[in-house]
Design goal:
With 223 residues, the chain is an alpha+beta fold. 48% of the residues lie in helices and 16% in strands. The strands form two sheets. Strands 3-4-6-5 form a four-stranded antiparallel sheet. Helix 4 crosses helix 5.
Length: 223
Amino acid sequence: MNRWFWSGSNEFARQQGWEIDRSARGGRRYRDPRFESRKKEILEGTPQEEPVSEPPPRKFSPGDGFPRKHPKVARAHDLIATTGLVWRWRAEIALACAVPMVAVPLLRWLGPAAALLLAGAVLAGGVIPGVRRAAGRLIVRHRFQGLCLRTSTRTPEGRLPLVVHTRSTPDGAALLIWCRSGMSPELFEDYIPEIKVACFAREVILHRHHRHAHLLTIELRRA
């Protein structure tokens, strides 16, 4: 009776190449030997390295500028910030005060011809290489400080870095920066692409001071 009941299943298992296990209670268990060989190959074979998925590209954060690793910093609007604003525009303020002091005596002495004389002096100054380099340094300094206002290149309190000195180089300009407390040279490294655009530079190189960690020279090489 038992053989007659399992005859159909046993015949199908033999055709498939399965192993037949006859239990003591008259039941049957069928096992495909190919699974055992495959399991043995997997256990004895060398483990394959899982593919490492590349991280998604980092997106710019929307807002004022595109800060890389730093949160957006609010601007400072206290007395120190106002004093720094006057210091940044010191050359323009001095020029605005000096022009009337020169123009008024000339107008009294020469009359309307003084305007032509002043215009000629301005045009002649634009041709002199030293004057042109000084004007270029002034524009680069203002562009750099404007970038610091539009990005997070500031202290957590909103203070701007101090531009101690700006000088011309054979292929561009160089800015000597005084990093305030809360800033580091790595902060400017994160914004090198923005510095290139703001200062019309083809290449930006940062030079750390060999003794003073708070001093940083930003070399701007123009195209």
